Amino acid sequence: MDSEKTNKQLIHTDELKNVLEEICQHEQVYSVALFDILGFSKLVSSKGNQVVLDLYNKLLDTLDKQRTHNDGTTGFASSVVPVPVTKDWKQNIMMAEANGFINACHFSDTFLIYVNYELSHDGFALATPFNEPYPLLLGEVGTAYYPVLYQKHNIYLSFLQTCMEFFCQAIVSGIPLRGCISTGLAIMDHTKSIYIVKPIVEAARGEPAQNSLGIAFGNSFNNSHPVYNKYFIPYLNHLKPNDDRTKFLSPMMLDWARYWRDTPDFKKYDFIECINNMNTDEKSSSYYENAINFFEFSKKHEKWYSELNREEINDITDYYKKATEWFESVK
To answer: Based on the number of CB atoms within 10 Å of its own CB, is 64 exposed (0-12), middle (13-18) or buried (19 or more)?
Structure first.
């Protein structure tokens, strides 16, 4: 891809559309979130197809909202992300609209949210400092490494926030979702409905290995994780026992529960009440109960990253070992 074409400022809508269409025809690094609706057939039978279409329209509204100005007062609003101003990534400022062009599509009961890193908005700085005492800048030894994920980490963070926004909106709307996020090389040409995506394979295998509503990370997270600890939390209780597909998942969960608590649009709702309203089938009740357990765990351990034993961490494998040990000690 011609770097001059993707790095220059794009003013005209037609020009932007043309560049995006050209980008999507080539293999790029993508982050992909796959969401499935739990009990889809029963949901459609009871509420009709329109409820799924309404959720998809809300997802599109979420993407549009990222392109609006935000004063940053909500902390982790979907268009605001931290950007480092020191070499150790500990001191940051908040940037609005410093995100990529996130796309979405859906097929029956499956939703895809995805983004590549070739093109992004020109963000603007807010007068809001952000301190991250324990930035995570490690990759797994002997596996693929994509420098663009650190060069444009703001796109990844915005993408994660979009996923949390969508998930929380679904809960408020009474639609139970289970998702998984992966990153890797892919071709995502929505103009021709061509999706040649290694990350989707990982996400599709890991997503059903969870006995809970929520958003897991695939193993590709080990090399494409967000840099800032408040976006995720070590958690293993959502994994189905004796399910081989759990090997496709990272020991980290996306901390959508924190997002719910920090975002005015959602914290006004009683999360447990929203979940209990959906929990009407005894056969799948554990999925809802485990979502509540995760919500309470996240609230109880907001400062988990300050409790971690950080001695003798040489790579991401060591880090996850320490994170798993911490989880086992507090669960």
So the answer is: exposed
The residue whose two tokens read 């059903």 is 208
Query: Is the pLDDT assigned to residue 70 strictly greater than 50?
Result: no
DSSP run (H or E) holding 110: strand 110-116
Reported as a single tens digit per residue, the pLDDT across 160-208 is 999 999 899 999 988 899 999 999 887 776 666 565 667 788 888 989 8
Q: How far apart are CA 198 and CA 134, in angstroms?
A: 30
Show the DSSP H helices in 173-284 as ranges.
198-206, 221-224, 256-262, 264-267, 271-278
β partners of residue 80: 96
β-strands 177-189, 214-218: how paired?
parallel
Q: Considering only CA atoms, which of 109, 28, 39 is closest in space to residue 279?
A: 39
Determine phi and psi for 254, rounding to 5 degrees.
-70, 130
CB count, 10 Å around CB of 188?
Answer: 23
At residue 39, the pLDDT reads 76
**Angle at 257 (CA atoms; ends 206, 62), nearest 5 degrees:** 80
Rg (CA), the chain: 19
Residues 6+ apart with CB under 8 A from 301: 233, 307, 330
What residues does each domain of the chain span?
A: 27-330
d(CA 251, CA 233): 9
Determine which helix (DSSP H) or strand (DSSP E) holds 40, and give its type and residue range: helix 40-47
DSSP per-residue string spanning 309-329: --TT--SHHHHHHHHHHHHHH
Give pTM, 2 decimals. 0.86
Give the pair of three-digit tokens for residue 126: 């807010």
Alpha-carbon distance values, 42 to 50, 134, 280, 287 (Å): 14, 44, 11, 15
> Residues 95-110: pLDDT tens digits?
887 778 888 887 777 8
